[in-house]
Specification:
The protein is α+β, with helices and mostly antiparallel strands. The chain folds into two domains: 125 residues, no CATH class; 241 residues, no CATH class. It is built from 13 helices and eleven strands. The chain is elongated.
Protein backbone atom coordinates (compact mmCIF):
# COMPACT_ATOMS: atom_id res chain seq x y z
CA UNK A 1 0.00 0.00 0.00
CA UNK A 2 3.04 2.31 0.38
CA UNK A 3 4.65 1.54 -2.98
CA UNK A 4 3.50 4.92 -4.41
CA UNK A 5 3.80 6.94 -1.21
CA UNK A 6 7.22 8.56 -1.79
CA UNK A 7 9.05 10.12 -4.71
CA UNK A 8 11.88 7.60 -4.45
CA UNK A 9 9.47 4.65 -4.67
CA UNK A 10 7.73 6.23 -7.67
CA UNK A 11 11.07 6.73 -9.40
CA UNK A 12 11.90 3.09 -8.74
CA UNK A 13 8.58 1.78 -10.09
CA UNK A 14 8.44 4.03 -13.16
CA UNK A 15 12.01 3.72 -14.39
CA UNK A 16 12.73 5.00 -17.91
CA UNK A 17 14.58 2.83 -20.40
CA UNK A 18 18.24 3.72 -20.55
CA UNK A 19 19.67 4.18 -24.09
CA UNK A 20 22.30 1.49 -23.54
CA UNK A 21 19.53 -1.04 -22.75
CA UNK A 22 17.29 -0.16 -25.69
CA UNK A 23 17.91 -3.56 -27.31
CA UNK A 24 18.28 -5.60 -24.12
CA UNK A 25 15.73 -8.14 -22.90
CA UNK A 26 16.06 -9.11 -19.26
CA UNK A 27 14.48 -12.46 -18.44
CA UNK A 28 13.90 -13.71 -14.91
CA UNK A 29 13.75 -17.48 -14.39
CA UNK A 30 12.24 -18.60 -11.09
CA UNK A 31 11.94 -22.22 -9.99
CA UNK A 32 9.09 -23.15 -7.65
CA UNK A 33 8.94 -25.99 -5.16
CA UNK A 34 6.42 -27.92 -7.25
CA UNK A 35 8.77 -28.09 -10.23
CA UNK A 36 7.36 -25.16 -12.23
CA UNK A 37 9.46 -22.64 -14.13
CA UNK A 38 8.12 -19.10 -13.81
CA UNK A 39 9.26 -16.70 -16.55
CA UNK A 40 8.98 -12.91 -16.55
CA UNK A 41 10.63 -10.14 -18.54
CA UNK A 42 11.40 -6.51 -17.75
CA UNK A 43 10.91 -6.81 -13.98
CA UNK A 44 7.26 -7.79 -13.77
CA UNK A 45 5.74 -8.69 -17.15
CA UNK A 46 4.85 -12.33 -16.57
CA UNK A 47 5.15 -14.79 -19.44
CA UNK A 48 3.80 -17.76 -17.53
CA UNK A 49 4.72 -20.91 -15.62
CA UNK A 50 5.85 -24.20 -17.14
CA UNK A 51 5.76 -27.61 -15.54
CA UNK A 52 8.95 -29.64 -15.87
CA UNK A 53 8.15 -33.35 -16.30
CA UNK A 54 11.01 -35.55 -17.56
CA UNK A 55 10.14 -38.45 -19.83
CA UNK A 56 11.71 -41.00 -17.51
CA UNK A 57 11.18 -39.66 -14.00
CA UNK A 58 12.74 -41.27 -11.00
CA UNK A 59 10.32 -43.71 -9.32
CA UNK A 60 10.82 -42.10 -5.94
CA UNK A 61 10.56 -38.48 -7.15
CA UNK A 62 7.23 -36.70 -6.94
CA UNK A 63 8.45 -33.36 -8.26
CA UNK A 64 11.59 -31.75 -9.65
CA UNK A 65 12.99 -28.55 -8.21
CA UNK A 66 15.20 -26.09 -10.06
CA UNK A 67 18.67 -25.98 -8.51
CA UNK A 68 20.82 -24.45 -11.24
CA UNK A 69 20.64 -22.15 -14.24
CA UNK A 70 23.05 -21.22 -17.00
CA UNK A 71 22.73 -18.76 -19.89
CA UNK A 72 24.75 -16.64 -22.27
CA UNK A 73 23.70 -13.39 -24.00
CA UNK A 74 24.76 -14.65 -27.45
CA UNK A 75 22.20 -17.46 -27.60
CA UNK A 76 18.57 -17.84 -26.61
CA UNK A 77 19.01 -21.29 -25.07
CA UNK A 78 19.16 -21.55 -21.30
CA UNK A 79 20.29 -24.63 -19.41
CA UNK A 80 18.33 -25.70 -16.33
CA UNK A 81 19.47 -28.11 -13.66
CA UNK A 82 16.80 -29.99 -11.69
CA UNK A 83 17.03 -32.13 -8.61
CA UNK A 84 14.32 -34.74 -7.92
CA UNK A 85 12.45 -34.27 -4.67
CA UNK A 86 12.28 -37.37 -2.51
CA UNK A 87 15.32 -38.96 -4.18
CA UNK A 88 18.66 -39.87 -2.66
CA UNK A 89 20.42 -36.84 -4.21
CA UNK A 90 22.71 -38.92 -6.42
CA UNK A 91 21.30 -37.74 -9.76
CA UNK A 92 20.40 -34.48 -11.46
CA UNK A 93 18.50 -33.62 -14.63
CA UNK A 94 19.99 -31.22 -17.17
CA UNK A 95 17.36 -29.69 -19.50
CA UNK A 96 17.75 -27.05 -22.25
CA UNK A 97 15.13 -24.29 -22.46
CA UNK A 98 15.03 -22.26 -25.65
CA UNK A 99 13.44 -18.78 -25.45
CA UNK A 100 12.87 -18.20 -29.15
CA UNK A 101 10.72 -15.12 -28.52
CA UNK A 102 13.81 -13.20 -27.39
CA UNK A 103 15.44 -13.21 -30.85
CA UNK A 104 12.52 -14.05 -33.13
CA UNK A 105 9.78 -11.76 -31.79
CA UNK A 106 7.97 -9.93 -34.64
CA UNK A 107 7.78 -6.81 -32.46
CA UNK A 108 10.43 -4.89 -30.53
CA UNK A 109 10.28 -6.98 -27.36
CA UNK A 110 12.09 -4.45 -25.18
CA UNK A 111 9.68 -1.69 -26.16
CA UNK A 112 6.62 -3.91 -25.79
CA UNK A 113 7.65 -5.32 -22.42
CA UNK A 114 8.55 -1.91 -20.98
CA UNK A 115 5.22 -0.42 -22.09
CA UNK A 116 3.29 -3.36 -20.67
CA UNK A 117 5.15 -3.14 -17.37
CA UNK A 118 4.56 0.60 -17.12
CA UNK A 119 0.88 0.08 -17.94
CA UNK A 120 0.57 -2.53 -15.21
CA UNK A 121 2.13 -0.15 -12.68
CA UNK A 122 -0.12 2.69 -13.83
CA UNK A 123 -3.19 0.52 -13.29
CA UNK A 124 -2.02 -0.21 -9.75
CA UNK A 125 -1.40 3.51 -9.28
CA UNK A 126 -4.89 4.39 -10.55
CA UNK A 127 -6.48 1.84 -8.23
CA UNK A 128 -4.67 3.15 -5.19
CA UNK A 129 -5.44 6.77 -6.11
CA UNK A 130 -9.09 5.85 -6.58
CA UNK A 131 -9.26 4.27 -3.11
CA UNK A 132 -7.70 7.41 -1.60
CA UNK A 133 -10.24 9.56 -3.47
CA UNK A 134 -13.11 7.53 -2.03
CA UNK A 135 -11.63 7.87 1.45
CA UNK A 136 -11.35 11.65 1.17
CA UNK A 137 -14.89 11.97 -0.18
CA UNK A 138 -16.28 9.87 2.66
CA UNK A 139 -14.44 12.02 5.18
CA UNK A 140 -16.38 15.04 3.88
CA UNK A 141 -19.71 13.26 4.42
CA UNK A 142 -19.33 11.16 7.58
CA UNK A 143 -18.99 13.85 10.26
CA UNK A 144 -21.60 16.25 8.77
CA UNK A 145 -23.88 13.25 8.33
CA UNK A 146 -23.69 12.45 12.05
CA UNK A 147 -24.45 16.06 12.98
CA UNK A 148 -27.40 16.23 10.58
CA UNK A 149 -28.77 12.89 11.74
CA UNK A 150 -28.82 14.09 15.35
CA UNK A 151 -30.88 17.20 14.64
CA UNK A 152 -33.03 15.42 12.06
CA UNK A 153 -34.55 13.16 14.71
CA UNK A 154 -35.53 16.17 16.85
CA UNK A 155 -37.06 18.01 13.89
CA UNK A 156 -39.21 15.00 13.07
CA UNK A 157 -40.69 15.07 16.61
CA UNK A 158 -41.89 18.69 16.40
CA UNK A 159 -45.51 19.23 17.48
CA UNK A 160 -46.34 21.47 14.53
CA UNK A 161 -45.34 18.77 12.09
CA UNK A 162 -42.09 17.12 11.04
CA UNK A 163 -39.65 18.98 8.84
CA UNK A 164 -36.31 17.90 7.39
CA UNK A 165 -33.02 19.63 8.10
CA UNK A 166 -33.05 21.01 4.56
CA UNK A 167 -36.49 22.54 5.09
CA UNK A 168 -35.52 23.91 8.49
CA UNK A 169 -32.32 25.59 7.30
CA UNK A 170 -34.01 26.87 4.14
CA UNK A 171 -36.75 28.35 6.34
CA UNK A 172 -34.13 30.09 8.50
CA UNK A 173 -32.33 31.61 5.51
CA UNK A 174 -35.52 32.94 3.95
CA UNK A 175 -37.41 34.14 7.05
CA UNK A 176 -34.77 34.47 9.77
CA UNK A 177 -36.88 32.32 12.12
CA UNK A 178 -35.17 29.35 13.75
CA UNK A 179 -37.10 26.28 14.89
CA UNK A 180 -36.45 25.41 18.57
CA UNK A 181 -34.77 22.04 17.83
CA UNK A 182 -32.56 23.73 15.23
CA UNK A 183 -31.66 26.53 17.66
CA UNK A 184 -30.75 24.02 20.36
CA UNK A 185 -28.64 22.09 17.86
CA UNK A 186 -26.77 25.20 16.70
CA UNK A 187 -26.04 26.42 20.22
CA UNK A 188 -25.31 23.13 21.98
CA UNK A 189 -23.71 20.98 19.25
CA UNK A 190 -22.05 23.39 16.83
CA UNK A 191 -21.13 26.45 18.92
CA UNK A 192 -17.69 26.78 20.48
CA UNK A 193 -18.20 27.28 24.20
CA UNK A 194 -15.33 28.76 26.18
CA UNK A 195 -14.74 27.90 29.83
CA UNK A 196 -15.37 31.00 32.01
CA UNK A 197 -12.42 30.04 34.26
CA UNK A 198 -9.90 30.20 31.42
CA UNK A 199 -8.09 33.31 30.26
CA UNK A 200 -8.61 34.68 26.78
CA UNK A 201 -5.11 33.63 25.69
CA UNK A 202 -5.56 30.08 26.97
CA UNK A 203 -9.26 29.49 26.44
CA UNK A 204 -10.40 25.93 26.75
CA UNK A 205 -12.73 24.75 24.00
CA UNK A 206 -15.13 22.08 25.24
CA UNK A 207 -15.09 19.03 22.97
CA UNK A 208 -18.89 18.77 23.01
CA UNK A 209 -19.28 22.25 21.58
CA UNK A 210 -16.77 22.58 18.73
CA UNK A 211 -18.90 20.95 16.07
CA UNK A 212 -18.73 23.79 13.56
CA UNK A 213 -14.93 23.88 13.49
CA UNK A 214 -14.75 20.11 13.11
CA UNK A 215 -17.40 20.23 10.38
CA UNK A 216 -15.61 23.02 8.53
CA UNK A 217 -12.21 21.31 8.78
CA UNK A 218 -13.53 17.90 7.69
CA UNK A 219 -15.24 19.25 4.57
CA UNK A 220 -12.60 21.77 3.51
CA UNK A 221 -9.61 19.45 4.03
CA UNK A 222 -11.41 16.48 2.47
CA UNK A 223 -12.44 18.40 -0.66
CA UNK A 224 -9.02 20.01 -1.04
CA UNK A 225 -7.30 16.64 -0.71
CA UNK A 226 -9.73 15.16 -3.24
CA UNK A 227 -9.01 18.02 -5.62
CA UNK A 228 -5.28 17.42 -5.26
CA UNK A 229 -5.61 13.67 -5.88
CA UNK A 230 -7.63 14.20 -9.05
CA UNK A 231 -5.54 17.06 -10.41
CA UNK A 232 -2.05 15.91 -9.40
CA UNK A 233 -2.33 12.12 -9.45
CA UNK A 234 -5.36 10.70 -11.23
CA UNK A 235 -5.49 12.80 -14.41
CA UNK A 236 -1.69 12.68 -15.05
CA UNK A 237 -1.78 8.88 -14.68
CA UNK A 238 -4.62 8.70 -17.20
CA UNK A 239 -2.63 10.87 -19.61
CA UNK A 240 0.33 8.49 -19.35
CA UNK A 241 -2.00 5.56 -19.98
CA UNK A 242 -3.25 7.33 -23.10
CA UNK A 243 0.31 7.82 -24.37
CA UNK A 244 1.21 4.16 -23.84
CA UNK A 245 -2.00 2.92 -25.46
CA UNK A 246 -1.40 5.22 -28.43
CA UNK A 247 2.04 3.64 -28.89
CA UNK A 248 0.57 0.13 -28.62
CA UNK A 249 -2.15 1.03 -31.12
CA UNK A 250 0.54 2.08 -33.60
CA UNK A 251 2.35 -1.23 -33.08
CA UNK A 252 -0.87 -3.22 -33.58
CA UNK A 253 -1.76 -1.34 -36.77
CA UNK A 254 1.75 -1.72 -38.16
CA UNK A 255 1.79 -5.48 -37.73
CA UNK A 256 -1.94 -5.90 -38.43
CA UNK A 257 -2.62 -9.65 -38.63
CA UNK A 258 0.60 -10.63 -40.39
CA UNK A 259 2.33 -11.79 -37.22
CA UNK A 260 1.00 -13.00 -33.92
CA UNK A 261 1.96 -10.25 -31.46
CA UNK A 262 -0.74 -11.11 -28.92
CA UNK A 263 -3.02 -8.08 -29.26
CA UNK A 264 -5.04 -6.29 -31.90
CA UNK A 265 -6.02 -2.71 -32.67
CA UNK A 266 -9.69 -3.17 -31.55
CA UNK A 267 -8.50 -4.36 -28.13
CA UNK A 268 -6.33 -1.28 -27.67
CA UNK A 269 -9.10 0.99 -28.93
CA UNK A 270 -11.39 -0.46 -26.26
CA UNK A 271 -8.84 0.35 -23.57
CA UNK A 272 -8.49 3.88 -24.93
CA UNK A 273 -12.27 4.21 -24.81
CA UNK A 274 -12.29 3.31 -21.12
CA UNK A 275 -9.43 5.73 -20.40
CA UNK A 276 -11.43 8.47 -22.18
CA UNK A 277 -14.40 7.71 -19.90
CA UNK A 278 -12.20 7.94 -16.83
CA UNK A 279 -10.81 11.26 -18.07
CA UNK A 280 -14.32 12.68 -18.53
CA UNK A 281 -15.32 11.46 -15.07
CA UNK A 282 -12.15 12.90 -13.51
CA UNK A 283 -12.78 16.34 -14.99
CA UNK A 284 -16.43 16.22 -13.89
CA UNK A 285 -15.29 15.35 -10.37
CA UNK A 286 -12.87 18.26 -10.43
CA UNK A 287 -15.64 20.67 -11.45
CA UNK A 288 -17.98 19.32 -8.75
CA UNK A 289 -15.29 19.64 -6.08
CA UNK A 290 -14.54 23.24 -7.04
CA UNK A 291 -18.24 24.14 -6.96
CA UNK A 292 -18.82 22.40 -3.64
CA UNK A 293 -15.81 24.15 -2.08
CA UNK A 294 -17.14 27.53 -3.17
CA UNK A 295 -20.69 26.94 -1.95
CA UNK A 296 -19.61 25.33 1.31
CA UNK A 297 -17.34 28.27 2.15
CA UNK A 298 -20.34 30.60 1.93
CA UNK A 299 -22.59 28.19 3.84
CA UNK A 300 -19.98 27.81 6.59
CA UNK A 301 -19.78 31.60 7.04
CA UNK A 302 -23.57 31.79 7.25
CA UNK A 303 -23.70 28.92 9.75
CA UNK A 304 -21.04 30.66 11.87
CA UNK A 305 -23.13 33.84 11.74
CA UNK A 306 -26.27 32.05 12.91
CA UNK A 307 -24.36 30.47 15.81
CA UNK A 308 -22.95 33.84 16.89
CA UNK A 309 -26.34 35.53 16.64
CA UNK A 310 -28.08 32.86 18.71
CA UNK A 311 -25.29 32.81 21.29
CA UNK A 312 -25.36 36.59 21.87
CA UNK A 313 -28.22 38.52 23.43
CA UNK A 314 -27.76 41.59 21.22
CA UNK A 315 -26.67 41.98 17.63
CA UNK A 316 -23.38 43.80 17.20
CA UNK A 317 -22.58 46.04 14.26
CA UNK A 318 -20.12 43.46 13.00
CA UNK A 319 -22.75 40.69 12.93
CA UNK A 320 -25.23 43.04 11.26
CA UNK A 321 -22.69 43.93 8.57
CA UNK A 322 -21.85 40.25 7.94
CA UNK A 323 -25.54 39.43 7.59
CA UNK A 324 -26.03 42.27 5.11
CA UNK A 325 -23.12 41.09 2.97
CA UNK A 326 -24.14 37.42 3.02
CA UNK A 327 -24.74 35.76 -0.37
CA UNK A 328 -27.94 33.96 0.56
CA UNK A 329 -28.37 32.54 -2.95
CA UNK A 330 -25.23 30.44 -2.54
CA UNK A 331 -26.32 29.40 0.94
CA UNK A 332 -29.66 28.16 -0.38
CA UNK A 333 -27.93 26.37 -3.26
CA UNK A 334 -25.64 24.52 -0.87
CA UNK A 335 -28.53 23.54 1.40
CA UNK A 336 -30.53 22.18 -1.53
CA UNK A 337 -27.80 20.49 -3.57
CA UNK A 338 -24.94 19.59 -1.23
CA UNK A 339 -26.07 19.42 2.39
CA UNK A 340 -27.70 15.99 2.48
CA UNK A 341 -26.45 14.41 -0.75
CA UNK A 342 -23.50 15.58 -2.79
CA UNK A 343 -23.35 15.45 -6.62
CA UNK A 344 -20.08 13.57 -6.09
CA UNK A 345 -22.11 10.57 -4.92
CA UNK A 346 -22.71 9.93 -8.63
CA UNK A 347 -19.03 8.94 -8.86
CA UNK A 348 -18.27 7.67 -5.34
CA UNK A 349 -21.58 6.56 -3.79
CA UNK A 350 -22.58 3.01 -2.98
CA UNK A 351 -23.82 0.77 -5.81
CA UNK A 352 -25.67 -2.50 -5.38
CA UNK A 353 -24.20 -5.71 -6.73
CA UNK A 354 -27.19 -6.08 -9.02
CA UNK A 355 -26.59 -2.69 -10.67
CA UNK A 356 -22.86 -3.40 -10.89
CA UNK A 357 -23.36 -6.76 -12.61
CA UNK A 358 -26.02 -5.39 -14.95
CA UNK A 359 -23.93 -2.43 -16.08
CA UNK A 360 -20.89 -4.66 -16.53
CA UNK A 361 -22.92 -6.89 -18.83
CA UNK A 362 -24.24 -3.95 -20.83
CA UNK A 363 -20.74 -2.61 -21.47
CA UNK A 364 -19.75 -5.82 -23.24
CA UNK A 365 -22.06 -5.32 -26.22
CA UNK A 366 -19.33 -3.62 -28.27
CA UNK A 367 -20.82 -0.12 -28.27
CA UNK A 368 -18.69 2.94 -27.59
CA UNK A 369 -18.35 3.27 -23.83
CA UNK A 370 -17.73 7.01 -24.06
CA UNK A 371 -20.99 7.56 -25.92
CA UNK A 372 -22.80 5.34 -23.44
CA UNK A 373 -21.37 7.31 -20.50
CA UNK A 374 -22.35 10.63 -22.06
CA UNK A 375 -25.89 9.38 -22.57
CA UNK A 376 -26.19 8.15 -18.98
CA UNK A 377 -24.87 11.42 -17.55
CA UNK A 378 -27.48 13.34 -19.54
CA UNK A 379 -30.21 11.00 -18.26
CA UNK A 380 -29.04 11.61 -14.70
CA UNK A 381 -29.15 15.39 -15.19
CA UNK A 382 -32.68 15.07 -16.58
CA UNK A 383 -33.81 13.01 -13.58
CA UNK A 384 -34.38 9.89 -15.67
CA UNK A 385 -33.31 6.31 -14.80
CA UNK A 386 -29.67 5.73 -15.65
CA UNK A 387 -26.91 3.14 -15.26
CA UNK A 388 -25.87 3.54 -11.62
CA UNK A 389 -22.44 1.84 -11.79
CA UNK A 390 -21.10 3.14 -15.11
CA UNK A 391 -20.13 6.66 -13.92
CA UNK A 392 -18.40 5.29 -10.83
CA UNK A 393 -14.63 5.65 -10.71
CA UNK A 394 -14.33 2.25 -9.04
CA UNK A 395 -16.34 0.55 -11.79
CA UNK A 396 -14.35 2.14 -14.61
CA UNK A 397 -10.95 1.47 -13.00
CA UNK A 398 -11.88 -2.17 -12.39
CA UNK A 399 -13.21 -2.49 -15.93
CA UNK A 400 -10.01 -1.00 -17.37
CA UNK A 401 -7.92 -3.35 -15.23
CA UNK A 402 -9.86 -6.44 -16.29
CA UNK A 403 -9.75 -5.60 -20.01
CA UNK A 404 -6.05 -4.70 -19.83
CA UNK A 405 -5.30 -7.93 -17.95
CA UNK A 406 -6.95 -9.88 -20.79
CA UNK A 407 -4.61 -8.16 -23.26
CA UNK A 408 -1.62 -8.88 -21.02
CA UNK A 409 -2.56 -12.56 -20.89
CA UNK A 410 -2.85 -12.81 -24.67
CA UNK A 411 0.54 -11.15 -25.15
CA UNK A 412 2.01 -13.52 -22.58
CA UNK A 413 0.46 -16.49 -24.37
CA UNK A 414 1.96 -15.32 -27.67
CA UNK A 415 5.41 -15.18 -26.05
CA UNK A 416 4.77 -18.40 -24.15
CA UNK A 417 4.47 -20.28 -27.43
CA UNK A 418 8.09 -19.33 -28.07
CA UNK A 419 9.36 -21.29 -25.04
CA UNK A 420 10.59 -24.81 -25.85
CA UNK A 421 12.12 -27.47 -23.65
CA UNK A 422 14.59 -29.99 -25.00
CA UNK A 423 15.18 -33.59 -23.99
CA UNK A 424 16.67 -33.70 -20.48
CA UNK A 425 19.84 -35.57 -19.67
CA UNK A 426 20.28 -37.60 -16.49
CA UNK A 427 23.54 -36.81 -14.68
CA UNK A 428 24.84 -39.14 -11.98
CA UNK A 429 28.22 -39.83 -10.36
CA UNK A 430 27.18 -42.89 -8.38
CA UNK A 431 27.01 -41.08 -5.05
CA UNK A 432 25.27 -38.09 -3.50
CA UNK A 433 25.87 -34.72 -5.13
CA UNK A 434 25.82 -32.16 -2.37
CA UNK A 435 26.79 -29.03 -4.34
CA UNK A 436 26.80 -27.97 -7.99
CA UNK A 437 27.44 -24.99 -10.23
CA UNK A 438 26.35 -24.37 -13.84
CA UNK A 439 27.64 -21.96 -16.51
CA UNK A 440 27.45 -21.40 -20.27
CA UNK A 441 30.83 -20.27 -21.57
CA UNK A 442 32.09 -19.35 -25.08
CA UNK A 443 34.87 -21.53 -26.45
CA UNK A 444 36.54 -20.84 -29.79
CA UNK A 445 33.53 -19.57 -31.78
CA UNK A 446 30.98 -21.88 -30.25
CA UNK A 447 29.25 -21.99 -26.93
CA UNK A 448 29.97 -24.91 -24.65
CA UNK A 449 28.47 -26.07 -21.38
CA UNK A 450 30.57 -26.06 -18.25
CA UNK A 451 29.11 -28.09 -15.40
CA UNK A 452 30.88 -28.36 -12.09
CA UNK A 453 30.03 -30.65 -9.26
CA UNK A 454 31.44 -31.35 -5.87
CA UNK A 455 31.57 -34.91 -4.59
CA UNK A 456 33.24 -33.98 -1.33
CA UNK A 457 34.75 -31.11 0.62
CA UNK A 458 38.06 -31.33 -1.18
CA UNK A 459 37.09 -32.77 -4.57
CA UNK A 460 36.13 -30.30 -7.31
CA UNK A 461 35.50 -31.83 -10.73
CA UNK A 462 34.64 -30.19 -14.05
CA UNK A 463 32.74 -31.70 -16.94
Amino acid sequence: MFVFSTTSSLDFVFRPIRPEEADAVHVMVVGTSDGRIHLSIYDSFVIGAFKYIPRAPSPSATAFELCGHGSHPEISTHVLLFTPQGGDGSSLHLAPMDLTFVHNSPVNLTLLASKMTTMQNLLRYLKQTQSHMVGEWKSTRDLPGRFLHAVGEDLEKMERGPVTIVQALYHTVVTGHVFPPLKEWLVDSLAERVSPLASYAASVILMSGQGHKRWDKAVISGLENLRGLVHENFIPALERCGIILSRLLGIARFHDSRESIGFTAPQILKLMDIVSCLTVVAHNILLCVMDELEYFATFSVWLRLQIDQLASSTLSDELTEKEANMDNAKVLTYIQRYLVSSPLSLYFGDVTRKDYARDEKLTEDGASLLEMLDKQLKRHEAGQPYMKALPHVDFLVNYLTSRASAVFREIAEAEKRGVRFGQPADISIGEKIWKQDLHLCPKCKSVSLLWRYYDGPDNFLTA
